[in-house]
Specification:
Blueprint (H helix, E strand, L loop, with lengths): L1 E5 L5 H11 L3 E6 L2 E5 L5 H10 L2 E5 L10 E4 L10 H8 L3 H12 L5 H10 L7 H9 L7 H10 L3 E9 H11 L3 E10 L2 E7 L5 H15 L6 E5 L5 H5 L3 E5 L3 H5 L3 E3 L6 H5 L2
Parallel strand pairs: 5-6, 5-9, 6-7, 9-10, 10-11
Antiparallel strand pairs: 1-3, 1-4, 2-3, 7-8
Helix pairs in contact: 1-2, 3-4, 3-6, 4-5
Length: 276
């Protein structure tokens, strides 16, 4: 088993201490922000050491590589992009605090995601639909390493699916912009150019994420072990359950507890480093 160490800044002393503690036979550089400790063994102190040094770590099998995967599923808000789109819509409407409080509770799993979404969508009722474009143009940013990760996935021939509890307005634009293969999300209802405070159709909630991933997996004939899922909130857990490998990205505690790996310090390109 190998130990992957990643960080914004990695001190040589920390790396050597981790190698000694894990009994690694060799240290290999993956790139400037990532190293592989060969033939490492799991030790209790590794987690606390990495926490203190602000390093991400992952124990991977010798045969675990990017080539074994066929599909990667990603959450949108706070995972692929660095914002919560519903919070930004609410901010323009002057109700960010009310909406953000519900968002936080939903992401921590403190309230049912679908119920929370219905509450949040209702609050900006009457807002001009053009505000969505304004959020996309002025506020939507990618999380660090997102585009680099997607580029490497395309080179590896891995299909991509964006599964969001957010809105189709954004997922469809990102699909076209980034060349994603599939997207799933909620559709906001608009009448006379204004948001009605309702969704069209059923709420695409927490359970829907797992259903969507399973649906595409079956259509393509992929096995569970061919899938990677990345997310940050409690509503991503059903998606995690359908994937062979799950990655908690700067995620809530409940998500990290249920993930194969966690990334808390580096960007999304750290996903690629795990499987180099």
């Amino acid at each position: 088993m190998d130990l992957i160490i990643q960080g914004i800044e990695i001190e040589t002393s920390d790396l050597r201490q981790l190698a000694k503690l894990s009994g690694a036979s060799k240290i290999e550089r993956i790139n400037g922000n990532a190293f592989r400790l060969i033939d490492a063994s799991q030790r209790d102190r590794i987690s606390s050491l990495c926490l203190e040094a602000e390093l991400d770590f992952a124990f991977v099998g010798e045969r675990e590589s990017l080539n074994q995967f066929r599909l990667i599923a990603m959450d949108m808000d706070s995972t692929l992009v660095g914002i919560e789109t519903i919070d930004e819509i609410a901010d323009i409407h002057g109700i960010r605090k009310q909406v953000a409080e519900i968002t936080e509770k939903a992401m921590y799993g403190e309230i049912d995601f679908s119920e929370g979404l219905i509450q949040r969508v209702a609050l900006p009722k009457g807002l001009e639909h053009s505000v969505l474009q304004r959020v996309y143009d002025e506020r939507l940013i990618f999380n660090p390493g997102a585009e680099k990760m997607l580029k490497q996935l395309k080179i590896a021939g891995i299909k991509t699916i964006l599964i969001s509890g957010g809105f189709t307005f954004f997922t469809e634009k990102l699909k076209d912009r980034l060349g994603l293969d599939y997207t799933f999300a909620n559709k906001l209802e608009t009448v006379n150019g204004r948001l009605t405070g309702r969704l069209l159709g059923e709420v695409f909630g927490a359970k829907g994420k797992g259903w969507a991933l399973n649906k595409i997996c079956n259509e393509l004939g992929f096995r569970k072990e061919n899938l990677i899922a990345i997310g940050d909130g409690a509503n991503d857990l059903s998606m995690f359950a359908e994937a062979g490998v799950s990655i908690a990205y700067h995620a809530k505690p409940i998500v990290q507890e249920n993930a194969t790996y966690a990334i808390n310090h580096v960007g999304l390109d750290g996903v690629i480093n795990i499987f180099q």
